[in-house]
């Protein structure tokens, strides 16, 4: 694969060097060169003297935590923002894109995470918006369609181009967006988190298309949160941090740890990732579920919840992890088994009942099931507590302010003030505010569904530390995650799910990545896989 | 493909069925004379509705239409009384109304103000300007004017296709051409689909927004001229609420109020449906004219329900397609 790309590059650029040679040398003229780029917004220095070089025919990862300046760099490059200082050269010629259309004319095309095309127009119209072939000043729909078919054929896509774009899957829309951007610009393609909403197969298709483009000599800037994809696809990486350049590296010479360290700017202490375990049971179980389940949802299971204990939940997507959480929180009512709290029967018929019993639940999809974007950080934090108190007994503004300030401080939620709309915060800070919302109700049992999904590496570590701290303070936690490493890091015991059934509980010193993966992958019925003797 | 055209087809079916029912009761309604009168009586509404269709497809709204029509009439009456030639007056008033719309469009874009608010202000402003010119109903009397109003094309069967009806038909044809066969038209649809995306795709959003509202007010000016030719008078209180009739015609014509979807042809049928109801009421002779409003209200509800249903079906089909692809 690497050879393919290198040869192709050598062919297009006419470089005499052998495979991979051009990438090591900074000598040959880059396709795109940014020097000393600066950009400030009121109160924030978003970019501070950043350099960036992109060669023809390479995939160049642009990495950094949220707020590192990736988006700003791309927006300045593509003409969305005007720069304050510095120089951008494309093919050796200084450029200054006035807007996105201008950037496209110059040769820089962009595809954003959410497909920024128009679902209500046809595929062909989307491809040629603003530059349709015209006859006597009028658009020719037939020629537009013919051109669109031919263009997409080059991407291995054969679809009805007169149908509305919105009728197609996100993956197809993504390819159409790329086809449009490349056709418009033809020199540099910026992909801003293009894989965020694609499944594994679609990601591979996308990678194939990117490789075809680099073979044609197009330089690709690839922005992503997924480090695996960086190593799978990219030739080089530039890392930004707090608006400054940290460095540029060849991927082949870059280790994972080094890359993460560059992004975070601090050594990840190994000790931080492993919490002490195996101190035995931490007090009596206060919650017990027996034969708890729901037909065609989650098979009946037994579960005991103890204070100061983190129960990790591992399993593949669709194995019943979120379903278990929803059952425990009363979002779906169980039709089998019983639940007891402190020995007394507990009926979990609704989330309200669960909240009354001291449960709290942070759902997986933060944006649609968690935050209320236009409400302030303070209002988001007080929401659950207010709901618990009822509308007849409102929190005073002073009380809610004090509450919000306390949690903003305690959880280190980075916001200028409590009144800022929560949608303006980064993903990690939104997640912490959601946690604060539930912690404000002083729960005994906290369920977290994928608490670290879609947040950057630094906030990731903070959330993990927070989970551990809450546990030390006596809270019982149930944490669902797809990241086995992460589960191992904070769990006292791990519940393993497969095909909507609880198939094992791994405890104490046995909580290792190998054991968990083994239990998930084990064949056959729910054996004692991973359960210590 | 069919889902895209379904609202238009539904509107057409409603019109044909309604017309057939009317014709069964009053066979005289089938005559060309009635059809010609239908066009003449609703010409000003149709012309304004073309502009409104563009505005609504782009995701906006223009509440100033009725006031601009009234202003045009009053302006024409006043300046013609003052001795200005009607043709010159037409040119003047079209310049004024188009500029008025352009200013509203500029405010909407550059001040990032919702179109509802800006055009609401425009509505009060234009209506106020009428009263500034005169509070009376002024008849228009001028040799050229009489000549213009007398222009018509005699249809077989005794009907006359008046100049105003012809203007409306020309405006509709031009509207269809602009909507579907020019870049401006695609930009309008694009902005209605997703304004931010359209901007990122290189649509000149500022220029297009200004042009859309300039077009709407300019056409409201044309509608005002048509209305003045139709009534031969200018009156400050004329055409109150016409903007709402226009919006109703556009929505009944299958255009989504959320923007991005709709056709000029559909609006034409929407206007005809409104006209048909009025014609029926006139033929019946015993019904109050308020029945028009009631039927329009019922139709609006029906079409909004139909559109919600279509959106729902489209979403389900998309989900199904995704499942099949996976």
TrEMBL record, chain A:
Organism name: Methylobrevis albus
SMART domains associated with the record: AAA
Disordered, as annotated region: 1-28
Superkingdom as given in the UniProt entry: Bacteria
GO MF annotation list: ATP binding; ATP hydrolysis activity
Family in the record: Belongs to the ABC transporter superfamily.
Classification lineage: Bacteria, Pseudomonadati, Pseudomonadota, Alphaproteobacteria, Hyphomicrobiales
This protein's name: Sugar ABC transporter ATP-binding protein
Topological type in the membrane: Peripheral membrane protein
GO cellular component: a single term: plasma membrane
Compartment annotation: Cell membrane
Keyword annotations of the record: ATP-binding, Cell membrane, Membrane, Nucleotide-binding, Repeat, Sugar transport, Translocase, Transport
Domain ABC transporter: 32-267, 268-524
UniProt cross-references to Pfam families, sorted A to Z: ABC_tran
Predominant cellular place of this UniProt entry's protein: membrane
Xref: PROSITE patterns: ABC_TRANSPORTER_1, ABC_TRANSPORTER_2
From TrEMBL, chain B:
Keyword check for Secreted: no
Membrane-spanning intervals of the chain: 6-26, 38-57, 87-110, 116-140, 161-181, 210-235, 247-274, 294-315
Subcellular location as annotated: Cell membrane
GO terms for MF: transmembrane transporter activity
Record GO cellular component, one term: plasma membrane
Entry-linked CDD domains: TM_PBP1_transp_AraH_like (cd06579)
Keywords associated with the record: Cell membrane, Membrane, Transmembrane, Transmembrane helix
A Pfam family of this chain: BPD_transp_2
Xref: InterPro entries: ABC_transp_permease
UniProt membrane topology term: Multi-pass membrane protein
UniProt-listed PANTHER family: ABC TRANSPORTER PERMEASE PROTEIN YPHD-RELATED-RELATED, INNER MEMBRANE ABC TRANSPORTER PERMEASE PROTEIN YJFF
Name used for this protein in its record: Sugar ABC transporter permease YjfF
Gene coding for it: yjfF
């Amino acid at each position: 694969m690497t050879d393919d790309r290198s040869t192709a590059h050598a062919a297009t650029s006419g470089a005499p060097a052998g495979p991979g040679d051009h990438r090591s040398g900074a000598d040959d003229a880059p396709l795109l060169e940014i020097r000393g780029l600066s950009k400030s917004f009121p109160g924030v220095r978003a970019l501070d003297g950043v350099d960036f070089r992109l060669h023809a025919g390479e995939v160049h990862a642009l990495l950094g935590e949220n707020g590192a300046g990736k988006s700003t760099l791309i927006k300045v490059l593509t003409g969305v923002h005007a720069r304050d200082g510095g120089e951008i050269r494309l093919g050796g010629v200084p450029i200054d894109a006035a807007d996105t259309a201008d950037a496209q004319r110059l040769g820089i095309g962009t595809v954003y995470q959410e497909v920024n095309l128009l679902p209500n127009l046809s595929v062909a119209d989307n491809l040629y918006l603003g530059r349709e072939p015209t006859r006597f000043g009028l658009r020719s729909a037939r020629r537009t369609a013919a051109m669109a078919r031919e263009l997409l054929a080059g991407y291995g896509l054969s679809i009805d181009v007169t149908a509305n774009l919105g009728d197609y899957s996100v993956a197809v829309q993504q390819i159409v967006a790329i086809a449009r951007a490349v056709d418009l610009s033809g020199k540099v393609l910026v992909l801003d988190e293009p894989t965020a909403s694609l499944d594994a197969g679609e990601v591979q298709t996308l990678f194939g298309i990117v490789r075809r483009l680099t073979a044609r000599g197009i330089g690709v800037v690839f922005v992503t949160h997924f480090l695996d994809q960086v190593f799978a696809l990219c030739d080089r990486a530039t890392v930004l941090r707090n608006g400054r350049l940290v460095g540029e590296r060849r991927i082949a010479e870059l280790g994972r740890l080094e890359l993460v360290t560059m992004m975070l700017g601090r050594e990840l202490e190994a000790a931080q990732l492993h919490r002490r375990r195996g101190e035995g049971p931490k007090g009596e179980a206060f919650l017990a579920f027996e034969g708890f389940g729901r037909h065609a949802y989650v098979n009946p299971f037994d579960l005991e919840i103890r204070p100061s204990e983190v129960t990790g939940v591992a399993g593949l997507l669709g194995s019943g992890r979120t379903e278990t959480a929803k059952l425990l929180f009363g979002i779906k009512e169980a039709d089998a088994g019983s639940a007891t709290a402190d020995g007394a029967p507990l009926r979990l018929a609704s989330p309200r009942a669960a909240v009354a019993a001291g449960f709290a639940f942070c759902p997986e999809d933060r944006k649609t099931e968690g935050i209320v974007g236009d409400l302030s950080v303070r209002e988001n934090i007080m929401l659950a507590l207010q709901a618990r108190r009822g509308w007849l007994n409102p929190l005073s503004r002073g009380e809610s302010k004090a509450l919000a300030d306390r949690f903003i401080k305690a959880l280190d939620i980075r916001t200028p003030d409590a009144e800022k709309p929560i949608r303006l915060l980064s993903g990690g800070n939104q997640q912490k505010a959601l946690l604060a919302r539930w912690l404000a109700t002083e729960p005994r049992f906290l369920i977290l569904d994928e608490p670290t999904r879609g947040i950057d590496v630094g906030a990731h570590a903070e959330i993990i530390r927070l989970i551990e701290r809450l546990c030390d303070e006596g809270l019982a936690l149930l944490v669902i995650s797809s990241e086995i490493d992460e589960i191992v890091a904070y769990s006292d015991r791990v519940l393993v799910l497969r095909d909507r059934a609880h198939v094992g509980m791994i405890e104490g010193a046995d909580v290792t990545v190998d054991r968990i993966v083994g239990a998930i992958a084990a064949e056959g019925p729910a054996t004692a896989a991973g359960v210590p003797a | 493909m069919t889902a895209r055209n379904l609202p238009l087809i539904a509107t057409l079916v409603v019109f044909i069925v309604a017309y057939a029912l009317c014709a069964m009761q009053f066979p005289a309604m089938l005559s060309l004379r009635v059809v010609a009168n239908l066009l003449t009586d609703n010409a000003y509404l149709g012309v304004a509705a073309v502009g409104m269709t563009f505005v609504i497809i782009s995701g906006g709204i223009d509440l100033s239409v009725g006031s601009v029509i009234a202003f045009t009439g009053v302006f024409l009456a006043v300046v013609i009384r003052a001795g200005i030639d009607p043709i010159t007056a037409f040119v003047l008033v079209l310049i004024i109304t188009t500029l008025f719309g352009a200013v509203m469009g500029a405010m909407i874009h550059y001040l990032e103000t919702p179109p509802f608010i800006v055009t609401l202000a425009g509505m009060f402003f234009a209506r106020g300007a009428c009263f500034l010119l005169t509070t009376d109903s002024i008849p228009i009397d001028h040799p050229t004017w009489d000549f213009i109003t007398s222009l018509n094309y005699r249809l077989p069967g005794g009907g006359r296709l008046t100049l105003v009806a012809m203007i409306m038909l020309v405006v509709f044809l031009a509207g269809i051409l602009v909507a579907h066969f020019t870049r401006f038209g695609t930009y309008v649809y694009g902005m209605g689909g997703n304004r931010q995306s359209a901007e990122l795709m290189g649509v000149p959003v500022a220029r297009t927004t200004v042009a859309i509202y300039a077009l709407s007010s300019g056409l409201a000016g044309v509608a005002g001229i048509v209305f003045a030719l139709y009534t031969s008078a200018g009156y400050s209180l004329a055409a109150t609420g016409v903007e709402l009739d226009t919006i109703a015609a556009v929505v009944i014509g299958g255009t989504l109020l959320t923007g991005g979807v709709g056709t000029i042809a559909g609006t034409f049928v929407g206007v005809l449906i409104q006209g048909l109801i009025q014609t029926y009421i006139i033929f019946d002779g015993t019904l109050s004219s308020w029945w028009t409003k009631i039927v329009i209200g019922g139709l609006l509800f029906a079409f909004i329900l139909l559109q919600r249903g279509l959106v729902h079906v489209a979403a389900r089909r998309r989900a199904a397609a995704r499942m099949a692809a996976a």
